[in-house]
Design goal:
The complex is a heterodimer. By secondary structure, chain A is an alpha+beta fold. Chain A is about 20% helix and about 15% strand. Chain A is elongated. By secondary structure, chain B is of the alpha/beta class. Classes of the chains: A alpha+beta, B alpha/beta. At the A-B interface, helix 2 of A face helix 13, helix 14 and helix 15 of B.
């Protein structure tokens, strides 16, 4: 196998890797800004310079030339090479800043150049704290500055489009954003204008940067030049905790991080997963985080108790209704709820002698783009299908509901009225039990028992995306009665770990009084005298993966944080 | 006897003294396009390249790369892979104005050279990228080119042979960087003129990603002469290792600035004499021998130095484009360098960090010194910046910006130190 010697250590490699990527893969740090593994290599930041050489062979004999010490004579390239654009070949010798003063100086020099016209506004910059320029400047940059002139001034707070704001002065012209729109999203909405030190990226005249993937450039930007119009100045990076999750606006199941401060989700960023979304996230996914925070319920309610009641009362009331009208109740699963929740509902329906009728399809034809957006606006249709649930016949059930043929309706984390299944009036004489996320739920006024359910940001569970990939979510924010630090799987920030509930940043009202459906349903079942065997989501998934062939292999352990692709099944996910 | 030989009796071939030579009929009456006819009828393509190799012609665009060798880098012809010739007429190096003369007074020599070069490399199209500011010459070239097409000297079945080739003119938009070969190609393709990383070199992946050879106007204009008079004749003109006729663009404080055609290897002092000597009988102070980016020479460094790659290299400079700038004793070298630095600052494309940031910083420092507010340490900082920029960028613009700064400061350090504020502490030397 061909070998390369980096800083005196020998590494075997395969194929024709770029030196920078190879070093990063080996855990060797090389400072860089413009390089991104999924885009073309412009080698324009000149930060990843290294010294590369190769042993000299004798022209006639083909043997390596040796010096007086018997060591191979190395001939180095006359100039330092940018490691991002350098393709390794067998026998090459590489010196990074760890072993070459020349390289260390070159990297310091480049950093000095990068910083001379970069504003020193880190204290008010959104990127501070996770800024590649800031981090690498501390590590590789010079001490102080020798630049004694007015910095170049360029446009600030330019609204490129609805979601992205540009501060051109911070830009270091790595062209990642431009390459993203040219090569990845192919909208071509960004370009570099001006020349030399006045360069900055902008949209062409009359064009708004409104493509559906525009916010990815914010994550790509190695400085604070491109910021989110939505998240700008909202929170510092070190105040937030991030938890790995997936997006639920469509059936793609793009991997993301949920960033939480004081138990409010502040933003969503992509979590790289080569099998699902690579490095990207559509804007529509990112901007939905608000529904985790806003219009959230404060505890359960029951019509018979004339409004707000305790969880015990609400659950007893639910059981009561099911006892009376259980046999005539329409059980609706949900493509928005986790596999575990839906499975629980199936157990409950069985306990009262019914079958779950199916789930409400949320198909929006034409919404998908063949990339990270799908026609299906619900995250778990595939998971329902694998449980044996089908989308309900909306016309049929709509007619029955309007005709008053249904006496009870049990809705798991969905909104039949908003989905057009029935009108609110049609539910007047129906016993409705509703698991809901937000008070904007249009079925809520008709509910006899309203049970606030935990959202994807608060629950533990499994979603199966349209390609049959089972992915697990962990709670990002706590719900009422749960101490953040005690939730083992929850992301914690410094404030969570070292702060107290008496801190200024702590607000009790941000703890929503809701429960995950997988916790509510077994309680209801118990009140009906039925004990559901598996209680925790982990055990439920163990049970499901062992008993349902469509879920073979979908245990929490196997899914990890990046999911596992299940073997395909024949489904009729709503058409 | 100098390397240039008997230059007094040298007869001009690139810009011969013929009235209205830019007209097609006048050019043909002088035997124009006969070299092309000979080549198309009697020569094989590789014979043309071999003859150019024999002539020892080196590129006239500044780098001085052997032209025949460059042509032979083109990969073997594949029927479905297009390949291109590109003529770089984006002449914008300060102090260089020779290609303009060729385009104005002898455009058909250029067209004929392009067609011969195209035949030598078996290609079907040449892009002629002309600097946008040359608008009147572009009109002229366009007119003459259409006459060339009408006379069946270009286009399909040139002169009744099987060989077809098109010449496509493209107008630049006013950026110095477009004279860099790879950014010229980007610009041709309609993109922002950022130089490309080499390798791959243009011969592997040039215009639209296809094999491309790119030559300077004067280089291509030498081709018909080499065919007409033979490679051996060409090799016998001027300096042995850098032969041929050259257009010297002489400017600055001389009595008769202009473009002069002479063999390579001319003594700089002879050229100064040809240009009428220094204006007002002043003394020579400095000479920039090949366009603004080559290192400046002090007057005491030019004795016996001839205008060819070897001799200038020994003297500590470069041939460049042979655009010679003579500066007299009254010249303020700080102001001179300030203007040069301003040019490179203004023209840096901004792709690579060292050049984008460094050129501006340099101009700032030199401006400060020129304004009498500089410090002695600024000179060392300038030299430091040269180190930080040189050889660390995609193209050579950073080098071109750093060389004049480094060498002007080194060679005229006294001029700079006098303009700086004295050091806070006395310096014992």
């Amino acid at each position: 196998m061909p070998k390369v010697i980096i800083d005196g250590e020998e590494y075997a490699f395969e194929g024709r890797p770029s030196l920078l990527q190879f070093c990063l893969d080996q855990g060797i740090e090389l400072p860089h800004f413009c390089y991104h593994p999924s885009m073309s290599v412009p080698a324009n930041c000149r930060q990843c310079l290294v010294d590369v050489g190769a042993p000299v062979r004798d022209r006639e004999t083909g043997e390596f030339q040796l010096d007086e010490n018997g060591e191979k004579v190395i001939r180095y390239f006359p100039k330092l090479q940018t490691s991002c654009s350098h393709v390794i070949s067998d026998g090459q010798v590489v010196h990074t800043a760890r072993s070459s003063e020349k390289v260390e100086r070159a990297q310091r020099d480049t950093m000095e150049f990068l910083l001379i016209n970069h504003p020193l506004d880190c204290p008010i910059c959104d990127q501070a704290g996770h800024c590649p320029l800031q981090i690498q400047a501390y590590k590789y940059g010079p001490e102080g500055s020798r630049f004694e002139f007015r910095k170049v001034h360029k446009p600030k707070k330019v609204k490129l489009g609805p979601n992205v704001v540009l501060d051109a002065e911070r830009c270091i012209n790595c062209t990642r954003c431009v390459r993203f729109t040219d090569e990845i999203s192919r909208s071509g909405q960004l370009t570099i204008i001006e020349r030399g030190v006045k360069n900055y990226p902008i949209t062409p005249p009359g064009v708004s940067f409104d493509e559906p993937y525009s916010m990815n450039v914010i994550d790509l930007c190695p400085v604070g030049a491109l910021t989110s119009a939505d998240f700008r100045f909202q929170a510092r990076i070190w105040e937030m905790a991030s938890a790995p999750s997936i997006t639920t606006t469509n059936a793609k199941g793009s991997n993301c991080y949920l960033w939480v401060r004081d138990n409010l989700v502040m933003r969503m960023t992509p979590r790289p997963n080569p099998d699902v979304n690579e490095f990207w996230l559509p804007d529509e996914d990112r901007l939905t985080y608000r529904w985790f925070n806003e219009n959230r319920p404060c505890g359960p309610a029951a019509l018979n108790k004339s409004g707000a009641c305790s969880w015990d009362e609400a659950i007893q009331e639910t059981a009561e209704i099911l006892k009376n009208t259980g046999k005539e109740t329409l059980f609706l699963a949900s493509a928005r709820a986790t596999v575990e929740d839906n499975w629980m509902l199936m157990q409950l329906a069985e306990a009262v002698g019914r079958q779950v009728a199916g789930y409400i399809p949320h198909i929006e034809p034409g919404h998908g783009d063949g990339w990270l957006r799908t026609d299906d606006r619900a995250p778990n249709s595939q998971g329902c299908a694998r449980l044996g649930l089908q989308p309900i016949d909306v016309k049929l059930w709509s007619a029955r509901l309007e005709a008053g043929e249904v006496q009870g309706l049990y809705v798991l984390e969905d909104d039949p009225v908003a989905a057009g299944l029935c009108s609110a009036q049609a539910l007047d004489n129906v016993q409705v039990i509703l698991h809901y996320y937000n008070t904007t739920n249009q079925t809520l006024p008709s509910a006899n028992v309203a049970l606030p359910a935990a959202t994807v940001a608060e629950t533990i569970g499994t979603f199966v995306n349209e390609a049959g990939r089972a992915q697990r979510v962990v709670p990002a924010k706590a719900i009422k009665g749960v101490n953040r630090t005690l939730m083992m799987q929850m992301g914690v920030s410094r404030a969570d770990q070292h702060g107290t509930p008496f801190d200024r940043w702590h607000n009790e009202s941000h703890y929503v009084d809701c429960k995950p459906s997988w916790e509510i349903i077994p309680l209801v079942a118990r009140n009906l005298g039925v004990e559901i065997a598996a209680q925790s989501p982990k055990k439920v998934m163990q049970h499901i993966s062992a008993s349902i062939p469509a879920f073979t292999g979908a245990t929490y352990k196997a899914m990890g944080l990046s999911g596992v692709t299940l073997s395909p099944i024949e489904t009729e996910v709503a058409s | 006897m100098t390397k240039a030989g008997d230059w007094q009796s040298y007869r001009r071939v690139l810009l011969p003294p013929v009235k209205d030579l830019h007209h097609l009929d006048v050019y043909r009456a002088q035997g124009g396009y006969e070299a092309l006819r000979t080549v198309l009828n009697d020569w094989k393509p590789e014979e043309v390249t071999a003859e150019v190799k024999r002539s020892g012609l080196r590129g006239r665009g500044g780098a001085g790369f052997p032209t025949g060798l460059k042509w032979s880098f083109m990969p073997p012809v594949k029927p479905d892979v297009p390949r291109y010739l590109c003529c770089n007429a984006d002449e914008s190096e300060p102090g260089t104005f020779k290609d303009r003369q060729l385009m104005e007074y002898n455009p058909h020599l250029l067209f004929e050279g392009i067609l011969i070069a195209g035949y030598a490399m078996s290609l079907k199209a040449c892009y002629l990228y002309v600097r946008g500011e040359f608008s009147s010459w572009i009109t002229l070239l366009q007119n003459e080119l259409s006459k060339v097409y009408d006379a069946k000297l270009a286009g399909s079945n040139i002169l009744g042979t099987d060989y077809s080739m098109d010449i496509i003119m493209h107008k630049g938009a006013g950026a110095y960087i477009c004279g860099e070969e790879t950014s010229l190609m980007e610009s041709l393709e309609g993109k922002r003129a950022y130089p490309r990383i080499k390798p791959p070199f243009p011969a592997q992946s040039g215009i639209w990603g296809y094999p491309t050879t790119i030559n300077n106007v004067e280089t291509l204009a030498c081709a018909p002469i080499i065919i007409d008079r033979g490679g051996d004749w060409f090799a016998g003109v001027g300096a042995k290792k850098h032969p041929g006729p050259v257009l010297y663009g002489i400017s600055g404080h001389v009595n008769r600035p202009g473009v002069y055609e002479y063999p390579t290897g001319m003594l700089i002092t002879d050229l100064l004499e040809i240009a009428g000597g220094m204006r007002d009988n002043k003394k020579l102070k400095a000479l920039v021998p090949g366009g603004a980016s080559v290192p400046v020479l002090r007057a005491d460094m030019i004795d016996g130095v001839t205008m060819d790659v070897e001799s200038l290299h020994e003297a500590g400079s470069m041939m460049g484009t042979a655009g010679m700038l003579f500066l007299d004793e009254d010249t303020d070298m700080v102001a001179f360098l300030r203007r040069v630095a301003r040019f490179y600052h203004h023209e840096s494309c901004g792709q690579c960090t060292p050049c984008r940031e460094g050129t501006g910083w340099m101009e700032n420092l030199i401006t400060r010194i020129d304004d009498g507010e500089g410090n002695l340490r600024d000179l060392d900082l300038l030299l430091d910046l040269c180190d930080q920029m040189e050889g660390r960028t995609v193209c050579a613009l950073a080098d071109a910006a750093a060389w004049p700064v480094r060498n002007t400061i080194k060679r005229f350090r006294g001029d700079f130190e006098r303009r700086c504020r004295p050091s806070a502490w006395a310096v014992n030397t």
